[in-house]
Every structure is written in structure tokens, then in C-alpha cells.
């Protein structure tokens, strides 16, 4: 599904990534942990084409992402990747349903089909009675689930999540990780999740530990494999 080879990232003399290789298979949940400054966000941003590596390649399906530029890159990213951040970044003036639809409209999909899928996703995520609410009428956990639905709208190959539980209390954080597992089981959804949360990181198929720009260990967690 996703393969990265020998990624490096330098800011003048600062070597933030020092040769990272990573392979993520379909339907796999991979968490990346490590202390602050280890390079986790930089790695995730490069995998998600939000940033470019100094050297190395990222492939998603059979596409070398380094060959995509401009509109083609933006279009590929919107169709094939979903993003979840620490803050939900929902647009305040739009309803939950409209927020979820936006990436589908941008992709040029039929509006009725997008609305139908958005409603289906919100129902699946337990938000059937929250679709017409504006973000500020929703709890933190609900807002983040709307952001998850938005990330899923174009049926992306992979979802990249950067500290998705960073702004949630422990109960909501745990529920969000269980939701990721449910989505993996139901839709074979693939995830890469950067997290500080050492309790939640093992709720994954594989846990990568980063230190000082490298992946220093890789552990099959297998706690969620039924
Ligand atoms: P934030 O989202 O925390 O405001 P960003 O990561 O978006 O910060 O960075 C804002 C700007 O600062 C970007 O241009 C980024 O390249 C730059 N930047 C981020 N971290 C550093 C750093 N450690 N040293 C120098 N520039 C940085
Ligand atoms: P983590 O997510 O593991 O906390 P980051 O990937 O955010 O680590 O940062 C890794 C290192 O790269 C840090 O030392 C950070 O200051 C530095 N860094 C990140 N972005 C920039 C930038 N735009 N310019 C310079 N240094 C940066």
C-alpha cells in the first residue's frame, strides 16, 4: 500500500530524518511513537505529501509521490489520503454533514452521492443525530469523529493522523482508537497514527519507535487482531 525508502530531511545542518524506511499494508494500523523532536510529524507530513523529503521516495499504490506536482499532487492527495490532526479544523460556518462533504465536492464526485456517503459515515460513527449541528455545537469527541468522517469521505487508501487524541480526554481518546480499529475491521481502512499516548499506541497492529530521526524499533502489537 504505502512504501517509503531511505527518507531524509535536513534543515541546513539539522538532520531531522536520517534514513527512514517504512512499509504499511492495507488494513494495517501503524502507530509512530517517540519523544518530542524525534521527527514523527516531519515523517508523517512527508508520507502525506504535505512536506517534501531531502532525499528518498514515497510510493502509494504504484505511484511515486515525488513525481506529482501542483494540481495533480493536490488532487491525488485529496482522493487517496485522509488527514486527521490534533485540532479538528472543521469549518465553523458549515454543518457537520457539509464539513464531511467538502473533500468529496473538491474531488468532483456527484453531489448527491457525496451527501449520501457523508450521512452514512456520520451514522456509522454514531453521529446520526448531529449531522446538522455546527462544530461549536458539538463536544470535542464528536468534533473529532466528524473530522474522521471527513477524512473517510473519498474512501482514501490511507489515513494519516497526527496526534489525533492530543486534544481529547482519556475516555474520548480511547474511544477514538477503538473507532480506528472498527474502521479497519469494517472497511479494511489503513492508518498511520503519530501519538504521544503510550497507552493507546499498542492499540494498533504495529508500533514504530522513532528516536533522533530514525526508526529504532518496530513491534508487532497484535493486541487488536481478533
Ligand atoms: P505551527 O503549526 O506550530 O504554527 P509550523 O510547523 O506550521 O508551526 O511551522 C510554522 C513555520 O515555521 C513553517 O514555515 C515551518 O517551516 C517553520 N518551522 C517549524 N519548526 C521550525 C523549527 N524548529 N525551526 C525553524 N523553523 C521552523
Ligand atoms: P516530533 O513530531 O517527533 O516532535 P518534529 O518532526 O516535529 O518531531 O521535529 C523534528 C525536529 O525537526 C525538531 O528538532 C524540530 O525543531 C525540527 N523542525 C521541524 N520543522 C522544521 C522546520 N521547518 N525548520 C527547521 N527545523 C524544523
From TrEMBL:
Keyword Signal: no
A GO MF term: ATP hydrolysis activity
Keywords associated with the record: ATP-binding, Cell membrane, Membrane, Nucleotide-binding, Translocase, Transport
PROSITE patterns in the cross-refs: ABC_TRANSPORTER_1, ABC_TRANSPORTER_2
CDD domains (alphabetical): ABC_MJ0796_LolCDE_FtsE (cd03255)
An annotated GO cellular component: plasma membrane
SMART domains in the cross-refs: AAA (SM00382)
Keyword Translocase attached: yes
UniProt GO BP: lipoprotein localization to outer membrane; protein localization to outer membrane
One protein family per Pfam: ABC_tran
Transmembrane segments: none
All residue ranges annotated as the ABC transporter domain in the record: 2-225
Sequence similarity: Belongs to the ABC transporter superfamily.
Name the UniProt record assigns to this protein: ATP-binding cassette domain-containing protein
Organism expressing this protein natively: Chitinophaga oryziterrae
Amino acid at each position: 500500500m504505502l512504501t517509503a525508502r531511505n527518507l531524509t530531511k535536513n534543515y541546513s545542518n539539522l538532520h531531522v530524518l536520517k534514513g527512514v524506511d517504512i512499509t504499511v499494508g492495507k488494513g494495517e494500523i501503524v502507530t509512530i511513537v517517540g519523544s518530542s523532536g524525534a521527527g514523527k510529524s516531519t515523517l508523517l507530513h512527508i508520507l502525506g505529501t504535505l512536506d517534501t523529503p531531502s532525499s528518498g521516495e514515497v510510493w502509494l499504490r504504484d505511484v511515486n509521490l515525488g513525481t506529482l506536482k501542483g494540481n495533480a499532487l493536490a488532487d491525488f492527495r485529496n482522493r487517496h489520503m485522509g488527514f486527521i490532526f490534533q485540532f479538528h479544523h472543521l469549518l465553523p460556518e458549515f454543518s457537520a454533514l457539509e464539513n464531511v462533504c467538502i473533500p468529496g465536492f473538491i474531488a468532483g464526485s456527484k453531489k448527491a452521492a457525496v451527501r449520501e456517503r457523508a450521512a452514512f459515515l456520520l451514522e456509522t460513527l454514531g453521529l446520526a443525530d448531529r449531522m446538522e449541528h455546527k462544530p461549536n455545537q458539538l463536544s470535542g469527541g464528536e468534533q473529532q469523529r466528524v473530522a474522521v468522517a471527513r477524512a473517510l469521505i473519498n474512501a482514501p487508501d490511507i489515513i494519516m493522523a497526527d496526534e489525533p487524541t492530543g486534544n481529547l480526554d482519556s475516555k474520548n481518546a480511547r474511544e477514538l482508537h477503538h473507532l480506528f480499529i472498527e474502521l479497519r475491521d469494517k472497511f479494511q481502512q489503513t492508518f498511520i497514527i503519530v501519538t504521544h499516548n503510550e497507552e493507546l499506541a499498542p492499540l494498533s497492529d504495529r508500533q514504530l519507535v522513532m528516536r533522533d530521526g530514525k526508526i529504532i524499533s518496530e513491534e508487532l502489537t497484535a493486541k487488536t487482531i481478533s
